[in-house]
């Protein structure tokens, strides 16, 4: 019974427990499930991964969503795997952000996942997150050796050493114990009055340096190593110095305290001979002015830290440079750099320590020095003959760019009564069908317009698509008060005589000697402004023009059986005869010369006509460039779709263009610059490591992209060197056009070695001069090793850092002023002393060209002062290149290379002028003649006069003066006086030679 009772009780208990379990089971399970749940997932934007594949690092930044988070743990795994490959952790800062950098250098290319765990102070996970990333394959260009040269690059003279003297081409440096040279000679003269001084004071007393060691060792033809040491009572100066073939000195030096020393002052002083310190240049410059180049100050001048400073004259100079102001402790940042002029000596002082500074460890610095000019240049821009007409298809494209001839209206047309007549060839299909009514005006064909700048009034004569014939009109504002429409049954290729007459109350149009239409009206532009121009257009597919005559009466009859002749009513008659292939100006039988742009001479009904292309000999754009004498074509950024990219998708077109250029003995050089585009395949992986920091630039172009400035201290240097080499090999290119590549852009990107940590923990600026120099030296080496006559043409506006510019075959300067509108006086914006300092080339040893965007001065105005300095303004088709071409050819024939250049600042013994505004520079070949550049640099039109000392110039007998640009020759007076009426910033180039000498 008891047993049964116990069994029954146990059953009851068991049943009760079962019921209880069944009742409570959901809650137990719920509790258990809740305890096993994972922490919440972090939002994707809370995790930022930044890949640095070149450094082999992954930067992880995690932002916690709530304040209980204390630290983060990060593990890296192969995508889809569970094995931890790399792990790291970091505490959160006050902004609830944790950052850590993981070493991924041992990981292979492929897809990975970064798993993040946020933990609270007790170590309990409170958030989980993950984000994928990819490690790319190592690119072929990374670590490229292209262009690297440990010795003497091609085309440079070997460096020499003798005792303590080191001699790069044209210069000599002497060393004696100090980290800088104690004597510098350039272009045959001592630039310094004494040694570069390393000035220090401690305890109120100057440190006196005693040379203890100077060891000079020639490594090879390109490099000399110098080791120096100097001692004082409390400190040592120790330096490892490298002098390279171009004269660049790199001095890595230390100030080593003997125990603990409190420095009151530390600086260096460069004592320049005052006569050779006429100009001051510093870098960086500024857009919109030339403030960093010009005459050396007459009074003491203080400046902030400048990473590059040069003082010199028109033939030589010497510079100091430093990539940063690391270890500079100066009380007043505006007094780091000081220029102190004196009657015999101009002092350049660099203040490095001006506040008492305790030293118990060495202070380290790296400075550079370089004397100029850096090399001799048997060829210069007069030989290179550069233009920017690179484009795919120019070898096939017909030449018809901006073809017209322009005459001044003043004295050439009577606004009250007159006639304009010409023979024209119909270069279009007059019967063409109109496809689109809205755009039918594009089928009109221009012939003649009379207008003035700044006025909307216009008198014109053209073929109208609606009339199917010539139409004359007068436009005043938005109104057309006079118009004559006619119809003509013309065929393409036919020649016809056309005329428009006005006077006697009628405006009339004539075709082939017959009146075709008229309308009541008096005159043309009334009054005709003095500044108006008559423009006759011979555009491709419009008209070719011959036998142009303008009369001061409304003619009522025309003899179309012969060419027109001059009579008492003729104001202008131009047969277009006697034109040479350069076609800068016409030679009318009567009236002023026409200024020709783009048009060429062809066969007309009465001899030579003016055409958009020679009717009996079609000419391509490339043929025209060759005809003008172009020897180098720059192909700007559009040679490739990606900005500053080393390859192109237009390979077949590029190959064809290069072959066509070479067939005409023209070099083709493509654009490379200073940017990385966000559509480049490399952007995704390498932009963070290769761009300057903070990021600057953002140049926009099509195809749709933005490009940002790179730093050539980064691995992008390898990309550029390798890419240029490959492109030259694949396409047989002739060098490079470099836009900003030689500029050591300011950078703080510590991921590739720029920037430095200041005492306050911030990052200081670096100007990577040495790395940019290495980039430029590599480009020089890889170009010149492939093609000894290859080009490295550098556009570097505002930047004359000679350690980098030394590796340019020529430089192109002036864009910093191109955005200034006309109105300000040109020589206030670009003074002559600034031109001699930065823009001339001669004191630097690198040939120069001037860039002109037709503002703030026109091309011709720029020539008025650039030619005085032996500097050409790079031209474009449409008049400017044609003008430049005439100078190329004439100077070759004259023998410029055999001449002695006598610029205006040192030719007073052979030429005197009537005014300081009259400048004359000469190229003299003695008894064989001379070329004189004569300019009016004054603000008023006037007759300028200059007297040549013919005896001193060794000129005698009967002489003639040939005006090179105007193609006019006249007798030259025996008294040697040049007299010309010149407008402001107008010039003449006169070839004065024995009569009969060509």
Describe this structure as you would to a colleague.
The chain is mostly beta strands and 998 residues long. The protein is 14% helix and 38% strand. The strands form 13 sheets. It has a nine-stranded antiparallel sheet with strand order 15-16-17-18-28-24-23-20-21. Strands 29-45-46-50-53-54-55-56 form an eight-stranded parallel sheet. Strands 13, 14, 19, 22, 25, 26 and 27 form a seven-stranded antiparallel sheet that branches. α6 packs parallel to α7. The chain is globular. The N terminus is likely disordered.
Outline of the structure:
14% of the residues lie in helices and 38% in strands.
Overall morphology: globular
**Annotation, overall tally of beta strands:** 65
Distance between the termini: 150 Å
Low-confidence stretches: 1-35
Write the layout of secondary structure elements.
Blueprint: H1 2-36, E1 47-52, E2 57-63, E3 69-78, E4 86-91, E5 97-103, E6 110-120, E7 125-135, E8 160-162, E9 165-167, E10 171-174, E11 183-186, E12 189-190, E13 197-202, E14 205-206, E15 210-220, E16 223-231, E17 235-244, E18 248-257, E19 261-273, E20 279-283, E21 293-295, E22 301-303, E23 308-312, E24 317-321, E25 337-340, E26 345-353, E27 357-359, E28 363-372, H2 381-384, E29 386-387, E30 404-408, E31 418-426, E32 445-451, E33 458-464, E34 469-476, E35 479-485, E36 495-503, E37 506-511, E38 514-520, E39 533-537, E40 543-551, E41 570-574, E42 595-597, E43 600-604, E44 607-611, H3 621-628, E45 632-635, H4 651-663, E46 667-672, E47 675-677, H5 683-690, E48 697-701, E49 705-709, H6 716-731, E50 735-739, E51 756-757, E52 763-764, H7 769-786, E53 791-795, H8 802-805, E54 810-813, H9 826-829, H10 832-839, E55 848-850, H11 859-866, E56 872-873, H12 880-894, E57 900-902, E58 911-913, E59 918-924, E60 930-936, E61 942-948, E62 959-963, E63 968-972, E64 977-982, E65 986-994
Parallel strand pairs: 29-45, 45-46, 46-50, 50-53, 53-54, 54-55, 55-56
Antiparallel strand pairs: 1-2, 2-5, 3-4, 3-6, 6-7, 8-9, 9-10, 10-11, 11-12, 13-14, 13-19, 15-16, 16-17, 17-18, 18-28, 19-26, 19-27, 20-21, 20-23, 22-25, 23-24, 24-28, 25-26, 30-39, 30-42, 31-36, 31-40, 32-33, 32-39, 33-34, 34-35, 36-37, 37-38, 40-41, 43-44, 47-49, 48-49, 51-52, 57-59, 58-61, ...
């Amino acid at each position: 019974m008891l047993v049964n009772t116990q069994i029954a009780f146990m059953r009851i208990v068991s049943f009760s427990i079962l019921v209880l379990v069944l009742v409570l089971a959901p809650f137990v399970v719920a509790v258990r499930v809740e305890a096993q749940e994972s922490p919440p997932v972090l939002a994707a934007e809370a995790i930022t991964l930044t890949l640095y594949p070149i450094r082999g690092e992954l930067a992880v930044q995690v932002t916690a969503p709530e304040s209980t988070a204390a630290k983060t743990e990060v593990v890296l795994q192969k995508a889809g795997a569970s094995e931890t490959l790399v792990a790291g952790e970091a505490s959160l800062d006050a902004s609830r952000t944790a950052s850590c950098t993981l070493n991924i250098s041992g990981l292979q290319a492929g897809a990975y996942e970064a798993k993040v765990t946020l933990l609270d102070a007790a170590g309990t996970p409170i958030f989980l997150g993950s984000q994928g990333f990819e490690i790319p394959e190592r690119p072929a260009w990374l670590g490229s050796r292209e262009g690297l040269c440990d010795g003497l690059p091609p085309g440079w003279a070997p460096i020499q050493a003798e005792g303590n003297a080191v001699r790069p081409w044209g210069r000599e440096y002497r060393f004696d114990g100090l980290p800088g040279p104690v004597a510098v000679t350039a272009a045959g003269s001592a630039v310094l009055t004494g040694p570069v001084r390393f000035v220090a004071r401690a305890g109120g007393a100057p440190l006196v340096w005693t040379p203890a060691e100077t060891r000079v060792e020639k490594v090879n033809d390109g490099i000399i190593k110098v080791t120096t040491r100097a001692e004082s009572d409390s400190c040592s100066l120790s330096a490892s110095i490298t002098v390279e073939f171009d004269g660049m000195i790199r001095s890595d030096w230390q100030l080593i305290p003997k125990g603990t020393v409190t420095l009151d002052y530390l600086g260096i002083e460069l004592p320049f001979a005052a006569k050779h310190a006429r100009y001051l240049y510093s870098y960086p410059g500024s857009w919109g002015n030339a403030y960093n180049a010009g005459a050396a100050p007459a009074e003491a001048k203080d400046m902030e830290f400048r990473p590059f400073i040069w003082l010199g004259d028109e033939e030589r100079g010497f510079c100091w440079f430093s990539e940063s102001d690391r270890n500079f402790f100066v009380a007043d940042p505006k007094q780091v750099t000081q220029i102190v002029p004196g009657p015999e000596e101009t002092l350049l002082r660099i203040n490095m320590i001006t506040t008492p500074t305790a030293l118990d460890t060495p202070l380290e610095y790296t400075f550079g020095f370089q004397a100029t000019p850096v090399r001799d240049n048997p060829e210069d821009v007069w030989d290179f003959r550069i233009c920017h007409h690179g484009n795919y298809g120019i070898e096939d494209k017909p030449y018809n760019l901006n073809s017209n001839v322009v005459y001044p209206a003043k004295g050439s047309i009577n606004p009250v009564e007159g006639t304009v007549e010409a023979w024209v060839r119909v270069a279009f299909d007059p019967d063409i069908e109109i496809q689109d009514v809205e755009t039918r005006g594009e089928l009109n064909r221009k012939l003649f317009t009379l207008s003035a700048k700044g006025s909307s009034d216009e008198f014109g004569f053209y073929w109208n698509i609606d009339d199917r014939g010539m139409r004359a009109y007068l436009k005043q504002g938005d109104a057309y008060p006079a118009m004559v429409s006619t119809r003509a049954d013309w065929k393409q290729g036919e020649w016809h005589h056309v005329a428009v007459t006005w006077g006697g109350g009628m405006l009339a149009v004539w075709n082939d000697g017959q009146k075709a239409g008229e309308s009541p009206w008096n005159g043309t532009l009334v009054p005709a402004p003095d500044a108006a121009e008559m423009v006759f257009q011979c555009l491709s597919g419009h008209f070719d023009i011959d036998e142009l005559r303008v009369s001061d009466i409304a003619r009522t009859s025309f003899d179309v059986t012969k060419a027109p002749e001059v009579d008492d009513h003729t104001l202008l008659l131009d047969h277009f005869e006697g034109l040479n292939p350069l076609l800068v100006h016409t030679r009318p039988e009567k009236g002023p010369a026409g200024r020709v742009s783009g048009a060429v001479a062809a066969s007309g009904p009465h001899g030579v006509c003016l055409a958009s292309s020679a009717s009996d000999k079609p000419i391509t754009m490339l043929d025209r460039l060759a005809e003008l004498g172009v020897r180098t074509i720059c192909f700007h950024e559009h040679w490739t779709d990606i900005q500053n990219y080393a390859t192109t998708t237009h390979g077949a077109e590029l190959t064809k263009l290069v072959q066509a250029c070479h067939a005409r003995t023209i070099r083709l050089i493509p654009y490379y610059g200073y940017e990385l585009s966000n559509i480049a395949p490399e952007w995704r992986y390498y932009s963070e490591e290769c761009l300057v920091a903070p990021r600057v630039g953002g140049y926009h172009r099509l195809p749709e992209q933005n490009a940002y400035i790179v730093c050539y201290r980064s691995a992008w240097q390898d990309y550029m060197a390798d890419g240029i080499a490959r492109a030259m090999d694949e396409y047989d290119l002739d060098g490079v056009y470099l836009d900003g590549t030689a500029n050591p852009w300011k950078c703080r990107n510590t991921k590739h070695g720029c920037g430095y940590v200041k005492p306050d923990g911030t990052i200081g600026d670096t100007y990577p001069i040495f790395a940019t120099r290495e980039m430029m030296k590599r480009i020089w080496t890889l170009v010149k090793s492939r093609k000894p006559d290859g080009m490295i043409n550098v556009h570097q506006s505002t930047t004359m850092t000679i350690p980098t510019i030394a590796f340019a075959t020529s430089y192109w300067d002036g864009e910093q002023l191109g955005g200034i509108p006309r109105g300000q006086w040109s020589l206030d914006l670009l003074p002559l002393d600034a031109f001699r300092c930065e823009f001339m080339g001669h004191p630097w040893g690198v040939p120069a060209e001037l860039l002109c965007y037709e503002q703030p001065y026109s091309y011709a105005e720029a020539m008025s002062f650039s030619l005085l300095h032996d500097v050409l303004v790079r031209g474009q088709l449409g008049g400017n290149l044609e003008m430049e071409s005439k100078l190329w050819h004439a100077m070759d024939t004259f023998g410029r290379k055999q001449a002695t250049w006598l610029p205006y600042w040192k030719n007073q013994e052979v030429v005197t002028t009537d005014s300081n505004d009259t400048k004359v520079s000469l190229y003299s070949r003695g008894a064989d003649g001379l070329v004189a550049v004569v300019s009016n640099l004054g603000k008023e039109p006037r007759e300028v006069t200059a007297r040549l000392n013919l005896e001193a110039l060794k000129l005698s007998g009967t002489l003639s003066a040939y005006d090179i640009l105007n193609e006019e020759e006249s007798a030259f007076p025996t008294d040697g006086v040049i007299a010309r009426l010149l407008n402001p910033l107008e010039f003449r180039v006169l070839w004065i030679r024995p009569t009969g000498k060509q």
